[in-house]
Amino acid sequence: MRLPCTQKDTMCRKISQVVEFEMNGMPPDSRVIRGCGWDESSYKGRCYQRSGFGGRQEVCSCIEDGCNSASIPVGATALMLLTFALLRFY
Length: 90
Fold this sequence. Notes:
By secondary structure, the chain is an alpha+beta fold. Helix content is 18%, strand content 36%. It has one helix at 74-89; strands spanning 11-19, 29-37, 47-52, 55-62. It has a four-stranded antiparallel beta sheet, with no helix packed on it. The protein is flat. InterPro entries: QVR-like (IPR031424), Snake_toxin-like_sf (IPR045860). Keywords: Glycoprotein, Signal.
């Protein structure tokens, strides 16, 4: 899903976040957060890492349209094709 950015936004941002142990009753987890941004400072077109109590994140910025998009998982695509082939021929 592609979301529009505002006029003040000048870049795309992708944050890969990992929570390493249970916190506030929630299990360890990882997630990717995609969005728009405008604070280019010295990180324009680059990635940087941050870490703190119980977690870490990598923040990347880029300026091309769709540059922070998700890729299609190869395993899921292969499984879907295999399932289709089995259903078709059996």
